[in-house]
Amino acid sequence: MSTDDLRYGLPEKMEYCKKCVIPNTKPMSMNEYKHTPETKHKFIQFDKEGICSACRFNEARDDGTIDWDKREAELRVLLDKYRSKDGSYDVLVPGSGGKDSVYASHILKYKYGMHPLTVTWAPHLYTDIGWKNFQNWLHIGGLDNYLFTPNGKIHRLLTRNAFLNLLHPFQPFILGQKTFAPKMAARFNIPLIFWGENPGEFGADMSIHQKKFNSDENEGHRLDFVDPSVNLDDLYLGGKKVSDYLKEGVTYGDLAPYFPLDGKAIAQKNIEFHFLGYYLKWIPQECYYYSVKHTGFEANPVRTEGTYSKYNSIDDKTDAYCYYTTYIKFGFGRAIADAAQEIRNHHITREEGVALAKRFDGEFPTRYFKEFLDYIGVTEEEFHKTIDAFRDPHLWEKKDGSWKMRFPIS
What we know:
alpha/beta, 2 domains, three-stranded parallel β-sheet, two-stranded antiparallel ribbon, 16 helices, 13 strands, about 40% helix, globular
């Protein structure tokens, strides 16, 4: 079978990394602004030994290739360059008050003496624990924050369309979240933005030594939410062109929070983009312990549906449906993603990861199901009909009335 015949550009043969548990169906390149039902994605790369690029990146991170003391010294030089003398904001950290954004913002302020502004693109539907952790981040952790909640009517419309057209209900959130931080940095003339983990740790095609990120794909790792020459009418949001929304009465102003940035405008502001994981060895569990100690961060009191963990992505009631739809389209869900990361960080073995994946991956999330259906305005019957319409027969087969994966992990 030719890959041209496979939906989403899926690999002809689904395989799992021999070192972690991530499959070769993990998408790594999705230009969200050109995302249509026909879009062919690029996927994580495996080498000849069957090891994924994320594992190879993390091996280089851990094997002594990197002098972490030298990297921290580089960080201090960078921060010294931009640290304000009058206490004005000198670095911007986007986040939700989860363990990663807590760690990044708090350590920049209290260890390195910076003056961060934190910014948050609001979840679709806050969970109780998510809202509590967000408040603790600011009030116990002592950080300034701007919380932006987009037009609820428009956000629901885009989320509904993204589910029905792309089986990608998180697309509007991703677009808004990615663009909000640079827009705020430009508005407040903040010259420095820090995200958390280095994207190479998840398999992005980049060197362990790469630290430059900007809008020019020929100069450093291109940021996919910056577009130097964009025709707004030709952008896709929720699988529909902006021009189609305009015909329905939605305005440019309604959609503006989701639009990409102008790369030239960002360049004129001299804003630098960095990942703290380049300079400091990023260990998710250590971020969790740090956030508990310094801001009173709390894990979920119950296991997160679809996985075994309790402290990752727990602020939005729609998170579970992002991971479940990924499972339907690409054959892996939240448990595999969590296990793969913990294997790379040497917290569990591959055998343990396989066992956890077999037990929890693809579990249907019931806890907030009714609220999710109400939010996107579909019935339960419409939900399942849409889900099944996006199953690629290359990955799925129906046996005795039930859908089964053709390539289960082993």
